[in-house]
Amino acid sequence: MVTKSPKQLIKGPRLGAHMSIAGSFTHAVDMGLKVGCETIQIFTKSNQQWGAPAITPDQAGAFKRAVADSGLAPCFAHAAYILNIGSPDPKLAKISEGALRVELERAETLGLAYVVLHPGAHKETGEEDCLKRIAEGARRALDKTAGAHVELLFETMAGQGSTVGHRFEHLATLLELTGHARAGICFDTCHVFAAGYDLRTPEAYQKTMQEFDRIVGAD
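The structure assignment produced for this chain is given below.
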């Protein structure tokens, strides 16, 4: 008997929103259902702090049961905003890489399908080297969670400051250099539009998606 994962069973787009885990992880499920979500995204911990209390077996079990009963799938985590595995500061890059591994472990514990990550910022040291640092850090974090099912998604960015990921070429480079089956892309339409890709008409949307497919690969 072959059991398919929730990701394999989903057909077509699922509409949802980011939900708070204030009080409990299951609170996010309850609130998602209340507003008509078909999927949800959560932070598994504070998005502005490095540390977090461990997820207990009871918490994980309750959340998994709530998700299974709700039909919300696939569900996502978003990594903390303070991570910058592309930082030119070796100390910050190392701390961020360790924190990313913890994010992946926490998401796996909760049975989440994906962790979305802001790739990082080069702090005026150049995009090319930054992309290499991100890919190397991401690959190590994925390798250290071998056996997990949760996937890491590099999010498309708006191009503010020295962040990378606002060009499709950046994303293609990240996937190539990371070279991991559990790495993919989160296509943020707001960020993509802010970065200069047109989505305002069906024709413009089609052109942008064709460009994404040509450079990154929609598959």
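Interim note for the steering committee: Helices lie at 6-9, 25-34, 57-70, 90-110, 127-143, 168-178, 189-194, 202-215. The longest helix spans residues 90-110.
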